[in-house]
Amino acid sequence: MTPSLSPAQMSARIVRYGELRPCKTAFIDAHTPGSDQKENFTIIGGGVSESPDQHVHINDTPGFNIGAAGQPPKCRNSLHSHRTAEVFFVLKGRWRFFWGRWGTAGEVVLEEGDIINIPTGIFRGFENIGTDYGMIMAVLGGDDAGGGVIWAPQVIEDAKDHGLVLGDNGALYDSHKGQDLPEGVAPMPLLSEAELQSFPEPTTAEVVPHHVARYWDLMALADRQPAKVIGADACLRDRPGFEVDFLTRGSAPDAAETHDTHTVLMPMRGHWRLTWDGGTDVLNPGDTCLLPPGLPHHVAPAVTGEASLYRVRATDDPAGATLRT
């Protein structure tokens, strides 16, 4: 039986950019100078937040998680690693991504619309190097996003000096709020030097060609048909548990489509009219829409001008991102 959704039911599956609820204490570096102005957003799925204060907009997970990070100029996210894929595209601003044990192995600057598929198993961080508040949208592989974050040792040590301790249960404890580690909970152990040796230190030349796609290149590729951005046969050839396509005015589908997996629509530029069996609505830049499997739907630009949209669909692949050189 083909599913249908009422406008109210679809509204509950759309998270509007202007209604995002930030958390400023999501991670261990929330008090560390230089990182203490971050805002983290958990849009679809529980993500990897370490704080009970994190609001989750849509609890269902379609095989991956969707989140976002908002930061003022000169604010950075500290070095960490994930066990599953972490993909970012820049919604607003100008961002520097860096990686390696000390963040010095390599780096790349991304502009609005650019996308990066960061390999699992390397330390990475990012900072807003623009002049205004910036926002990056994130796709994390797996329903549980790999079970959390692995922090570089210096991040944990710096956080302790500013009142935050991460327990070995994955929860944060804030001395600013009078919190101590509960009985039976030990501090998260630091990675040993032997363990740190297993984290790769790829150069910029090794990462960028295989893990970064530029917005205007994708606009050209998607002139007449959707551009395959991440996937087995895509620009960034990988199988991280989801695939990413890029649509423009010229490659928007002519007729309704039906997919047998969950589909997430994330407009980058322009206003997109979504029509489905049950109603119609408009998606704007920064909005996130979760479509269920089997729902016939059609999406197309609603007004004239530049229009682009990232589309994410679940796959049966493992939820990791392979380092390709």
Describe this structure in words.
The chain is mainly β. The chain folds into 2 domains: 17-212, Jelly Rolls (Sandwich), CATH 2.60.120; 215-314, Sandwich (Jelly Rolls), CATH 2.60.120. The protein is 10% helix and 36% strand. It has 5 helices and 24 strands. It has helices spanning 7-11, 153-161, 193-196, 204-211, 215-221; strands spanning 14-15, 39-44, 56-58, 64-71, 76-81, 86-92, 95-99, 106-110, 115-118, 124-128, 134-141, 150-151, 164-166, 172-174, 212-213, 227-231, 236-237, 242-248, 263-269, 272-276, 279-283, 288-291, 297-301, 308-314. A 7-stranded mixed beta sheet has the order 1-22-19-24-18-16-17. A 7-stranded mixed beta sheet has the order 3-2-4-11-6-9-15. Strand 7 (95-99) and strand 8 form a beta hairpin. The termini are far apart. GO terms for molecular function: DNA binding; isomerase activity. Residues 257-307 form the AraC-type arabinose-binding/dimerisation domain. This is Putative mannose-6-phosphate isomerase. One of its GO terms (biological process) is regulation of DNA-templated transcription. It comes from Thalassobacter stenotrophicus.
* Name of the CATH architecture of the largest domain: Sandwich
Class derived from helix and strand content: mainly beta
Classify the fold: give the CATH topology of the largest domain. Answer: Jelly Rolls
Q: Which term fits the overall shape?
A: globular
Proportion of residues in helical segments: 10-25%
Number-wise, the strands total 24
For this structure, what is the CATH class of the largest domain? Mainly Beta
List the helices and strands in order: HEEEEEEEEEEEEHEEHHEHEEEEEEEEE
Assess the beta-strand content as a share of residues.
Answer: 35-45%
